[in-house]
Amino acid sequence: MDELSPNTQSKNSAASSWRPGQLAFNPYFTQNEAANSKSQCLRVLVRRPFVARLTKDIVETYQVCNPQFKYSEELNPKRYLTTPSSGVLNDGYDNVNSDLILTVNFVLVNLDMQRRYIVKDVLGHGTFGQVAKCWVPQTNSFVAVKIIKNQPAYYQQALVEVSILTTLNRKYDPEDKHHIVRIYDYFVYHRHLCICFELLDTNLYELIKINHFRGLSLTIVQLFSKQILHGLALLKDAGIIHCDLKPENILLCTSIKPAEIKIIDFGSACMEDRTVYSYIQSRYYRSPEVLLGYQYTTSIDMWSFGCIVAELFLGLPLFPGASEFDLLRRMIEILGGQPPDYVLKEAKNTSKFFKCIRSVHNVENGEHSANRKSAYQALTEAEYEARELKRPSTGKEYFNHMKLEEIVTSYPYRKNLPKEDMVKETQIRLALVDFLRGLVEFDPAKRWSPFQASKHPFVTGEPFTHPYKPPSETPHMPVSQNIRVDHHPGGGHWFAAGLSPNIPGRNRVSIHSNPHFQVVPYAHANSYGSVGSHGSYNDGTGLGSSYGSYGDTSNMFAYYSPVGPSGMNMHAQGNVSMLGSSPDARRRIVQYSHGNGLGMSPSAGSFAPLPLGTSPSQFTPPNSYSQVSAGSPGHYGPTSPARGNCHGSPLGKMAAVSQFNRRKSWGYPGGSQTQESSSTHWQGQATDGTSSSQAEGNSQILGSSPSHLHLSSNAGSWKQQRGSSGISAGYLAQNMPASIAVGSPMKFPMTTGVAHEKAEANPSLPDPGDWDPNYSDELLLQEDGSDVSCLTAEFNQGMHLGSAETLVGSGRFNRVPNSSSGPSFQRQNGPIQSYPHVEVGSPPSTTEPLAGCARLSKPSHFMPHISQNSPSRLGQQYQRSNHGRSTNSRGNDWNHMKMQPPSPNFNSGGPHSPGNSSFSNGMSWGHRASHPVTSIPPASRGRKDYGRIS
Amino acid sequence: MENSTQESHLRAENSVTYESPYPLYAMAFASPQTRTRHQHHRIAVGSFIEEYSNRVDILSFDPDTLSIKPNPTLSFDHPYPPTKLMFHPNPNALHKTNDVLASSGDYLRLWEVGDSTVEPIQVLNNSKTSEFCAPLTSFDWNDIEPRRIGTSSIDTTCTIWDIEKGVVETQLIAHDKEVYDIAWGEARVFASVSADGSVRIFDLRDKEHSTIIYESPQPDTPLLRLAWNKQDLRYMATILMDSNKVVILDIRSPTMPVAELERHRGSVNAIAWAPQSCRHICSAGDDTQALIWDLPTVAGPNGIDPMSMYSAGAEINQLQWSAAQPDWISIAFSNKMQLLKV
Questions:
Q1: B80 contacts on A by Cβ (under 8 Å)
Q2: Which of A51, A60, A81, A134 to mutate to test the interface with B (most CBs of B within 10 A)?
Q3: What's the CATH number for A215-464?
Q4: Is B215 domain-assigned?
């Protein structure tokens, strides 16, 4: 009757000397259903078992024992997921970085949907805010929620991501077949925009790290390549540039499907015809045209894609440039050749990296003959140093071979590979080289499109017999527009002015910045002063000037500096990553920096385009377009040479700049106001502490535009920090001050710098030669669970329970265990990182975003939120009150009434109201006035925060 | 195999029952060292009475005569039903002549159990308010470092006490929800289970981190009890609330249980590893059964059957298998405590 008698089992238990006898116990027998069902029936339990009553129900039990017994869950120590965890902003809900302070089981609520998101953990964080893993009781599932900082700029930028992703999901990929992350929901909670995404798994960088920075098998590389190409093809169709494609932004899915991946983080994305920002893409994955400051299209994502494919195979980045100079040097060395002359001739930053060895005239003539030798020669390190007065940082070489072909073909094979497989692999490697050649192609016009690349034998798996000739791409070519655009409107001006384009950044900077920065703090004065035109005037200065005078980059800088807060954040993060000390630190930094740069830019551009399915009108920007051009240009006047440019070439990069202007103007019917507002903006930020009164009225408009500025500024600072060669000391100086004003940024740069050095010093990057080729990445194909378990297993082995020392918990999640011995590259954020887009300017104009969103889904809902949100976090909120000056903007009036921020912001003139004007589009909102917007100051709930218990 | 008459005969000789005036829950054997002084084994049992005032009785078990005798002078009042009782693992280390007993409930309490009296030693209370109390669901005495007791509380924390100094060594927010049980693995390593459905391992040398080695398949299905295999620290066992499963974990392969023992016909209420074997574990539950399992090296396709079973007269609430008397398993059901020879 016993299936497994003790005797049977005893065979198995030979190892154990002791066995229980059959004394009080009987041999187990499979119980008879009939007999048992009876006895079971008798045992209807009225009460729960004691063990449950003294655990799960212990409070109830004790209360029965003693009615006086009291337990308060509120008193429980809280486990903070956000650091710092002290609430100093937003009625105690936000920390000093404007991050919502999350604790385990904190509940985010989408009031419209009545949906609750219970925070379980933080998956990552960035300058944009945090990403939390949340449990949704309603759907019984986990999701990833990106909780954006309570700062207008981030808010705005995040809206861009919402709009782009919503469009991509709904319009272009309704069936979820293109490997783009799904967006589920978004809402505002305690003034934080929360975006809800499907929960994904490990990112590809982590995957490589798990594999100890050894490359993945070609099968997997091919599998991933195909999927990424699916996504990129969709993006191209949609005319969207991701702008930050890298292994960290490609995540494994949690689904059971083997090795399915998705592209995430559209926080930096922009529409192809709105390429506002020039400082984009993470450095290792940055395309030559972006590096050089040339116009760009979706093909920059293809470059990044090539870099990713190579990295998946090699386990290490193909172009781990320690600086832009180093990056370019590596490209030239590994690929042979250099960017085509037509790019070099036009690109803004050409002079930073190349010298002209023949006259431009010749170059132009030379365009007819393709084989002509280039008129440009890359600067040597010494030349660069002489020109930039700064030694470019260069990184370590990780590969023994310097040519792409050799790097790929001589990469160590897996051990014990059978002969046949070896031959096969060799063939596929040749295909891979050919594939990469079409992706990391200097000439953006010749670089393959996703469609072309997807037909390559490496992807299709067909035998590779001869170099691939791609089919011609069916011309969607939104690009053409851009092509004509004059990138350097500014450049043109300078030339006119007799300035040579070669002038090092710093010079430019000073010029630019002066108007901007200096003015900025006291922007008021300016703006006011120049009444009438002033609005525009200021704008002109700020924006216009930057454009015209500098290349994109320089513009960037100018903008950036104002951004105090964002700058800070970035730095901070940068530091963190740096701490990792691994060589990677650089990367991280890069990332962040990008983030900033990127983040910002897209918003401007993207919104406008919103053609994505959303009606442009909802977004603030749309209106402005037309208006903008009209209003702003005239105003600029002498100060900003740029504006001329703007007008002329709306589309070009410069156009981006010009967009700023536009935006500003959009809001306003009256151009002047807008401008003012913008100026205020800056101030606000600079000052930070003070509340900006001015901003209000204008703010709306500004809202959007200002943010841009900020962003850019960050970028600027970044560069500095990174020590990217491009930026000269001059920049630093300017930036620094700006940041200082803001707050703490100063220290960051310092730190980063240090960290950076460390990182470089670190020899930690594994030499490929050292790797043990004997690994199986088959594992990787298994469900992640297995990976995890492997890791953990490793981990655990490390810790012998027996020994006293053993058990060291590594992160709470198994996946996290940093046991991986290799070089510890740490990228800070978990799988889901997005970059923060720093936008400073716009106030919590939740409204705006909402509006945008609204159109996407449900416009009306948002309104209420908005009102709440409006108060900007710093306490300076403000809003849009118009000071007398803005006569006409009804938008303003409206704002006034409804939006009064809790804080005393309204001073109209207060010189220091830095405020971020939260509103971005006063105007557009104006018509919405009808909606009941009540500004409800969040009730300050008494928080009982217990410190961490250590 | 024995025939049925032999069985009943054997059972009569191999089990002892003590009947208490009240339902019993907590139960503890005195440590082996104390036996030498008392000639019998001491067993402490705690009542489960739904009143403030509960009782702890100290019983004497004589394995030779198979008798269990109460010591009325050693019974004492205990506020609330104790959630756990434990004797000092090595009282000789204390240079005390008497046993020391710990109990958990509203607070952690230490009692000195003399020959004829029980004196409270101290109440270890880490609460900052007197108005509110976060009850302790369990505790474990560190037998390598007996000055350490770790408690688990519904306030999501585990508190490590230095009982010699009477101070908190550390308090960790161990889980996202109530913590229901705690078990030491080594001097500085403990594990805990929680209403959040996870088993986590902590190392006092790195308090910032823990390792999750198991999460219940349905998020937030509470794990009620945890038993760490003292003979082979790679293994531990846990039970889920309202589940007939005993989950066996190998800490080297987190996430995936090495075995799930599913032969109980009601929810499992208690588990205990054999003190003298690394492969045997006993479980008991609402199906009135206590099952002894011999963990096979490889589980068959139909799951694992227990090697032997015992049916009690009622739902079994408690189970102890003490190193002090490795041949005896004690169970508690209704108002009875029963010792079963294995």
A1: 62, 65-66
A2: A51
A3: 1.10.510.10
A4: no
Q: Decide if A809 and B286 are in contact by the 8 Å CB cutoff.
A: no
B280-285 sheet: strands from edge to edge: A26-27, B308-311, B289-294, B280-285, B268-273
- Cβ-Cβ contacts under 8 Å between A and B: the total is 280
Residue A244 is among the residues annotated as catalytic for this protein: yes
Instruction: Give yes or no for a contact between A158 and A146, defined as CB atoms under 8 angstroms apart.
Output: yes
Chain A residues with CB-CB distance to B152 below 8 A: none
Give the gap in angstroms from C-alpha B22 to the nearest C-alpha of chain A: 13
For A96, list phi and psi in degrees, rounded to 5: -65, -20
Contact in structure between A601 and A280 (CB atoms under 8 Å): yes
Contact call for residues B264 and B285 (beta carbons, < 8 A): yes
Rounded Cα distance between A243 and A287, Å, is: 10
Mean pLDDT check: name the lowest of A672-686, B56-70, B310-324.
A672-686
**Active-site residue identified among A94, A99, A201, A244:** A244
Which chain B residues are within 8 Å of A811, Cβ to Cβ? Answer: 209, 211
Query: Does residue B156 lie within any of the structural domains?
Result: no
Residue B61's domain comprises 25-113
Binding-site annotation, residues of A for ATP: 146
Determine whether the interchain pair A45/B188 forms a contact, defined as Cβ–Cβ distance below 8 Å: no
Tokens coding A149: 């900082």
Residue B279 falls within a domain, yes or no?
no
**Which is more confident, B178 or A892?**
B178
CB contact under 8 A, A810 and B209: yes
Tokens for A21, please give them.
Answer: 């006898």
Q: Which residues of A472-501 are buried (b: 16+ CB within 10 A; e: fewer)?
A: eeeeeeebebbeebbbbbbbbbbeeeebeb
CA B167: distance to chain centroid? 24
pLDDT digits (tens, 9 = 90+) for A807-864: 333 333 333 333 333 333 344 433 333 333 433 333 433 333 333 333 333 333 333 3
**Mean pLDDT computed over A50-66:** 95
Calpha distance B155→B144 (Å, rounded): 27
Nearest CA in chain A to B10: A23
More confident residue, A285 or A363: A285
Q: What residue ranges do the domains of chain A occupy?
A: 33-71, 215-464
Distance of alpha carbon B179 from alpha carbon A51, whole angstroms:
13
The Cα–Cα gap between B186 and A94 comes to: 40
A28 vs B263: CB contact, 8 Å cut-off? yes
Name the domain count of chain B: 1
pTM for this prediction:
0.54
Are the beta carbons of B317 and A24 separated by less than 8 Å?
A: no
- The structure tokens listed for A81 are 């997921």
CA distance B2 to chain A (A): 8
Q: What are the phi and psi torsion angles at A741 (to 5°)?
A: -50, -45
Only one residue has tokens 């799904």, namely A182
Q: Could A22 and B251 be called an inter-chain contact, meaning their C-beta atoms sit closer than 8 Å?
A: no
List CB contacts (< 8 A) between B2 and chain A.
22
- In this prediction the ipTM stands at 0.95
Q: Bridge-partner residues for B330, per DSSP?
A: B320, B339
**SS3 letters across A126-160:** ECCEEEEEEEECCCCEEEEEEEECCCHHHHHHHHH
Residue given tokens 């090539």 in the structure block: A306
Q: What is the pLDDT of residues B57-100, one digit of tens each?
A: 999 998 888 899 999 999 999 999 999 999 999 877 666 678 89
CA A72 to the chain's CA centroid: 40
Contact A496, A647 (CB under 8 A): no
CB atoms near residue B56 (< 10 Å): 24
Mutate to test the interface with A, among B107, B176, B204, B287 (most CBs of A within 10 A): B176
Tell me the binding residues of A: 146
